[in-house]
């Protein structure tokens, strides 16, 4: 797979150790070797996700800790490869904090599907998060060619659709040691996050624009009144972003114009800074 491509309009982050993706990979690798020790094997029973134990004994932490456990080196290597290759792209676009929220949301999605389809079966691994990241990549860059099995070139969208169908078929068939429905749960969570988050921001800005029209002002002596940004500009900005996101979903990031990429970059920078004040995007 070729997930280490630079995309125009997005800047490099700091040093490698400052990267959230790097820290996640290091944490998974270190914990893998720690859990090869005798005491680690005993702890796995308390940290692996067993939905029945979450319900009957209150082991709620398992819904997160299971993401840092892996069965063997091959299991660990595949998940870390996907997270490293594709996760860095989204950390550059979204910033570390937002990527981390996305990562754990995908893991929780895998946990929810495990409750539905593997209630009595222990589940471990970061595969739900890895599959969620792959789906996000296919939504943002559907026509980007990846090397499936390191040899066969295939479009990202085609690869992810194929993986989803394969997981569904194998999950229904049952058997084996792979939690296929957890993979689908990670994908479902990623899809909800990709679409729902931006729709929520549209709704939030719509409400703000309406509230800003209410003629209610509270002032104190010596205070200077700062007029709010025109609501029409706020609505126009969010309409631009929504239109660009729809275009990405339909045609992929690579088909954006330079102007659209610049608008999306400016919006991403604004979101990374956590600035709640609306600003005009030119």
Structure description:
The protein is mostly helical. It folds into 2 domains: 16-192, Rhomboid-like fold (Up-down Bundle), CATH 1.20.1540; 195-213 and 228-272. Helices cover 64% and strands 3% of the residues. The chain is built from 11 helices and 2 strands; from the N terminus they run αααααααββαααα. The chain has a two-stranded antiparallel sheet with strand order 1-2. A hairpin with a 3-residue loop joins strand 1 and strand 2 (152-155). The protein is globular, with a radius of gyration of 22 Å.
Mind sketching the topology for me?
Layout: H1 20-34, H2 38-47, H3 51-57, H4 62-65, H5 73-94, H6 96-117, H7 127-140, E1 145-148, E2 152-155, H8 156-173, H9 180-211, H10 231-251, H11 258-272
Antiparallel strand pairs: 1-2
Order of strands, widest sheet: 1-2
Number of helices: 11
Calculate the mean pLDDT score and round it: 80
Number of strands: 2
Structural class by helix and strand composition: mainly alpha
Give the N-terminus to C-terminus distance in angstroms. Answer: 36 Å
Helix content: 55-70%
Briefly note the CATH topology name of the largest domain. Answer: Rhomboid-like fold
Radius of gyration: 22 Å
Secondary-structure element order, N to C: HHHHHHHEEHHHH
What is the name of the CATH class of the largest domain? Mainly Alpha
The rough form would be described as globular
How many structural domains does the protein architecture include?
2
From the coordinates shown, what is the CATH architecture of the largest domain?
A: Up-down Bundle
Low-confidence stretches: 1-14, 216-226, 275-282
């Amino acid at each position: 797979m070729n997930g280490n491509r630079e995309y125009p309009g997005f800047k490099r982050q700091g040093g490698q150790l400052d990267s959230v993706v790097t820290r996640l990979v290091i944490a998974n690798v270190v914990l893998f070797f720690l859990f090869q020790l005798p005491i680690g094997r005993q702890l796995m029973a308390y940290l692996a996700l067993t939905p029945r134990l979450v319900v009957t004994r209150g082991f709620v932490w398992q819904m997160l800790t299971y993401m840092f456990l892996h069965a063997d080196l091959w299991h660990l290597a595949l998940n870390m490869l996907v997270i490293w290759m594709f996760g860095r792209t989204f950390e550059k676009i979204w910033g570390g904090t937002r990527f981390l929220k996305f990562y754990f949301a995908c893991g929780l999605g895998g946990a929810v599907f495990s409750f539905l389809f593997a209630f009595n079966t222990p589940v471990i691994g970061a595969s739900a998060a890895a599959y969620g990241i792959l789906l996000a990549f296919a939504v943002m860059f559907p026509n980007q060619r990846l090397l499936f099995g390191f040899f066969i070139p295939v479009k990202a969208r085609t690869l992810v659709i194929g993986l989803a169908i394969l997981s569904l078929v194998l999950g229904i068939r049952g058997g084996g040691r792979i939690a296929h429905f957890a993979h689908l749960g990670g994908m479902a969570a990623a899809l909800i996050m990709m679409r729902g988050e931006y729709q929520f921001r549209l709704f939030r800005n719509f409400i703000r624009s309406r509230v800003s029209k209410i003629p209610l002002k509270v002032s104190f002596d010596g205070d200077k009144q700062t007029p709010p940004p025109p609501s029409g500009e706020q609505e126009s900005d969010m309409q631009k972003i929504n239109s660009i996101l729809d275009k990405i979903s339909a045609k992929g990031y690579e088909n954006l114009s330079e102007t659209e990429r610049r608008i999306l970059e400016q919006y991403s920078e604004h979101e990374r800074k956590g600035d709640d004040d609306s600003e005009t995007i030119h």
